[in-house]
Each structure stands twice: as structure tokens, then as C-alpha cells.
What does this fold into?
Amino acid sequence: MDATIVAVRVARRPEASRCRGTLCARCAGLREGNCVDRFFKISERGSTVGNEVIGGLTTFLAMAYIIAVNPLMMNIAGMEFDAALTATCFGAAAMTIAMGVIANRPIALASGMGINAIVAFSLCSADALGVDWRVAMGVIFLEGIAILVLVLCGLRKAIMEAIPVNLRRAIGVGIGLFVAFIGLKGGGVIVSNESTYLAMGSLTSPIAIVSLVSIGVAVVLEVMRVKGSLLISIVAATIVGIPLGVTTVPTELHFGLNFATFAAPFQIDPSSQTLAIAQVLVTPALLMFVFSLLMSDFFDTMGTVVAVGDQADFVDKDGNIEDVQPILLVDSTAAAVGGFMGASSITTFVESTAGASAGARTGLSNIVIGALFVVFAFFAPIIGMVSASATCGALVVVGYLMLTGVGEIDWSLPESAFPAFATIMGIPLTYSITNGIGFGFVSYVVVKVAQGKIAEVKPLMWVASLAFLLMFIFG
It folds into this structure.
């Protein structure tokens, strides 16, 4: 009986003897698959290649609005739209793939909302500092280098661990309100008013109609859990905007790349005829922006990583992130790379939670996302049709998604509640992520001192709060 079974088994695999010299296609495929599995630890984390691909597609569809939004922001700052699109896509692709390969976490990166608004409306706007976009990218580049140094020294990780969990969650909520406000303002739903500062715009204007369509489609598809709901809302609103005159149809199509913004910090600033980065180094106001953006970039990642980690199972019950150092290393490098490429600061995206919810657990999903960003870099004329009104719905829904953390804040404790409130309100009302974070830090220390709980404030919180206080006084 046993001899018969052995004979049958040998007969059923005659290819075994033929694979000793060279691998057949089937065996080579298996070996390659196992190699991918081992490298990304797919099976070890309870995932599959199919889950990673689906997760990557889901994350890309959730964050694809940045392909339209960031070039628009950078165009306001003075860049050519095509060049800004190339920088946005290649920057996102490079750093998302780097996160997948180095940190092996399903965390995608792209040009950050909020900081690109600071570049457009605070650094480059004629109503503010009015610097050239190359100088602004020099500010971003230096800020990224500074954060990278702090990561290599272990300081960023230490400060992350020193910040109370409730304050971490409040930062994400405040940014969500800020992003939604930017969308509504750009879409003409909210306008300025001399008496009340803000008011509702004319909802019958073409710009507002397109905005309302984008919001309606985004919300309906989001609650129906349709994958790619934000991207679909942008496409639908863009089409509606054509007969209304809001969408600009390109007169010619060219599907090339424009690398004019690459090495931006080391290009010549036309106004001063000096290197853009040198202009930053000799201007105190710009150095203050380096510090301000550093503080903002320094902490923005924290809430995003915790949110993704909750979905992808690499954050414990106390909010501690497993193997956080490689994540911070890639994120910090991304800020400098964004400045170098002219894409604004590249950072982790909270929309990565969508992919994690869809099953992504490893960096393989990042390879999928990176490849898609490269493909879309060639479609500048089509992406250029997208108006601020068309992206309004995407920004509003992103803001809504980021507000989910408000329920996790302990509002019964003053040392948690008031600093969280100060952070959440400070970010949108001052139009500054940095200011809101600073309000939260300083108020946290003040409340702790008032309660006689000075010993509970960690040393690095004292240092960070003092830095914010000095920024408020001298900024």
C-alpha cells in the first residue's frame, strides 16, 4: 500500500527532475512570488497580493484629488501648471514607493494640503510676503533638512511620544476643518464680508453651482461606500462646469512632462538675482517660516500615522506606533524632496486609511500607488481642466473624514479638553496649522500648571511650548 502511494506521487510530478538544471516558468513564478511575499511580509501580516493591489488602488482613488488641487495651488504661487503637475506626481510616486520599500507600511505620501496653502497665500501672495516660488521651495527644502536631522537624532520620535494622545487627535481634527474651509472658500460657497468677516456666497453663481455638484456627488458616493468617490466627484463637477463656463477646455493637447521646477531651491531668484536658498538664509522672516513649517510638518504626520496604524494594525492600544523610526525617516526626507522638486512639502496622507480599511497591510500597496502617480503625470492638459470648484467636494469630504477623531478625545478632563479645543479652533480660524498646534501646546502647559500638575508635563513638551511661545511673540 505505502509503496504504491509513493509510486503514484512520483508519477504525478515528472517535472521535478527536469527543473534541476533551469527553472520552468511555473516554478520561477512561484519562487518570485515567495520572494515578494517574504520581502513585504505579506503572509506574515495576514494579507494577500490581491488585498495589497486593491488597497493600493483604493488609497490612490481616495487621494487622487491632490493631482488636481496641488498644481492649482502652486499655479497661484506662480509656477507653470504643467511643471507643478509633473513635480506633484513624480514627488508623490518617489516617496510613496520609498515608504513601501524602506518602512514597509501602507502609508502613501504626496504634497500636503495646508502647507501648499501656506506657500500660495502666505509666502508667495502679493498680499503677504510676496516671494518668488523658488524662494518658497527653498523654505520647504530647508525645513525638510531640519526635520531629517531631528529624526536622525531621535528627537522627533521622542517628542511624538511626549505629546498627550488627546492633543495628537485634536491636531488631525483641526486640519480637517481647515481643509474643508479651503474647499468651501475656493468654491465660492464661503466668501469674505466686511461686516461679518465671512458669509455665504451666491449659490446660484456658476462657480457655486459646480461646487455644490461636487459636494453632493462626493457625499452621496462616500456614504454609499463607492470606491473612488472623491475622484468621481471631481470628474462629474468638471463636466458640469463646461457648459457653465467654469471648466476651461484645453485648445491643444500635449502629454509631455515639464521639469522646470526641479532643483527649485538652487535656481536663481529673479527679483534678487541670487540663489533662492541663499535668499532664505539671509531673510529673518523666511527663516521664521522655516521654523513655523517645521513645527507644522513635525506634528502633522503623527495623527496620520496613528490613524492609518489603527486600520492597518501597527498601533497598540496606547497609541504607540510599531517601528516608527523608518516611517519618520521617509516622511522627513519627503519634505526636503518636495521642496527640491517644486511640489511643496510631501507628507503622509490620511487617505491611506481607506486603503488600510480595504485590506492593505504592507508596502506592496505603495508600489501600486506610485505607479499610478507616474501614469497620471502625463495628463497635464486634462488635469488642467479641473477648477477649484470641482475639487470643493473632495476637500469637504476629506475634512469630514479627518473629524472622526473628535469623538476619541476625552472632553471630561480640562487638561485634555481645552488644549484640544484651542487646537481645533485655532487652525481654521487663524488659517494656520502651526498656530493651532501652538495654541494647543501652550494651553496644555498652562492648564497643567494651574492644576498643580507640573510634574506631569514632559520636558520636551516644555521645550516645544516655549518654542511656540517665542514664535508667537516675535513672529
Notes: The first strand starts at residue 109 and ends at 111. The chain has 22 helices and six strands. The two ends are 88 Å apart (CA to CA).
